[in-house]
Amino acid sequence: MADSPMLKFVDRVQAYPAKRAPELRAEDFREIADRFAVPAAEEQAGRCSQCGVPYCSVHCPLHNHIPDWLRLTAEGRLRDAYELSNATSTMPEICGRICPQDRLCEGNCVIEFTGHGAVTIGSVEKFITDKAWEEGWVEPLVPGPARGQSVAVIGAGPAGLTAAEYLRGNGYEVHVYDRHDRAGGLLTYGIPGFKLEKPVVMRRVDRLKDGGIVFHEGFEVGRDASLDDLRQRHDAVLVATGVYKARAIEAPGVGAGGVVEALDYLIASNRRGFGDVVPEEEAQSLDATGRNVVVIGGGDTAMDCVRTAIRQGAASVKCLYRRDRANMPGSQREVANAEEEGAEFVWLSAPEAFHSVSEGSVSSVAVRGMRLGAPDASGRRAPEHDPGSDTQMPADLVIKALGFDAEDLPGLWGAPELGVSRWGTVLVDGKTLMTSLDGVFAAGDIVRGASLVVWAIRDGRDVAAAMHKWLKAKAAGERKAA
């Protein structure tokens, strides 16, 4: 063990790739930190304790072989490390950038519990996959022997793209239908470039296109075809739309001009980043330049809006959240990044009303002070009004970022027989992952509700296996009948 590159966590301090200075990174939409240089990546990977029960892998939804590819990285076997990382994940460099590692792998790292600081797993994962792209180690998608069956995937987000990749590898003809003009879903239009630069997503999409997956972009089920139409065209259908319906705020004046949805705001910003022409009226209503911005919410979408507004040159940026910092759902790292860049968090606060000037545009937010009361059904302490702590806050752009629910797919798609839960999520059989409709499967957020990208990838992997099994049985039945 004397010559082993591992177990260096005692004499080697935890280090992340250096972040650019807040005042510099707030001027652009580039990622805020560069990746490790080779020696630094190898050194940080060598801090892994190679523990007998790797809690990092246990708490990773994909159950990535983390200790193994950390060891390979520490040994300088970078291509082997990449290939092992890629074996369980279709998007390792994306997960390395946007997974909340502080809540998953790194937050459960054994040496984190000893006080030495977790291994910087996400940064190493990003490093080895970016290195693979640079060196040409990322293999093209090679279709399996043609099976003579086709699959429709509705939704080009991480769940849909992952399933499409596995199904194409198994020899199916795969068609991906998506409402946007670029594939990627929220990876492309919902997450800002400072967390995930868009060429990183587009090169993954291009790889799938080069592998023969057919993309129908700007295609809306319910407008361009019904669900039944797609069932007639294909042997199986996967519903992987995600959840896009913004949760509403019930407060007087919420319909005022300048009170906008988080996703509308982020999509407009990302479109500008692509160089798209955004209609002037839309661009003005969804631009924070010179405005007093109030973001409502405490999740990662709220953090994305806060940090985007700073980069657009807002006069001030405040984030209201009805609980305290310790109870917010968003990543603590993202909160710290936002604070470094100049955002102000107003904890234990909620909007009570939105006041407008004469022409109907929002001018201020009446803020109700909150306190944490008894735990609710989820076990979290429920926020309640704290009398005497109400305030008024100037605002000429309010961004609602309270999360997302499922759209009414049965109604939108003319498919009343598609079974959904009382929350609108699509119901599937726990073993087959099939919906109430024969040959129609579902996966990702549209099944589990708004969740993490890494869970969507896991769901896409699982549903591809279930669909493969079902399609093989279907083909065998048809051959027998013939």
UniProtKB/TrEMBL annotation:
InterPro entries: DPD_II, FAD/NAD-bd_sf, FAD/NAD-binding_dom, GltD-like, Helical_ferredxn. Its EC number is 1.4.1.13, 1.4.1.14. Coiled coil: none annotated. This is Glutamate synthase (NADPH/NADH) small chain. The keyword Oxidoreductase applies. Residues 150-460 form the FAD/NAD(P)-binding domain. Residues 25-136 form the Dihydroprymidine dehydrogenase domain. Keywords: 4Fe-4S, Iron, Iron-sulfur, Metal-binding, Oxidoreductase. It is an enzyme of class 1 (oxidoreductase). One of its GO terms (molecular function) is glutamate synthase (NADPH) activity. It holds the Pfam family Fer4_20.
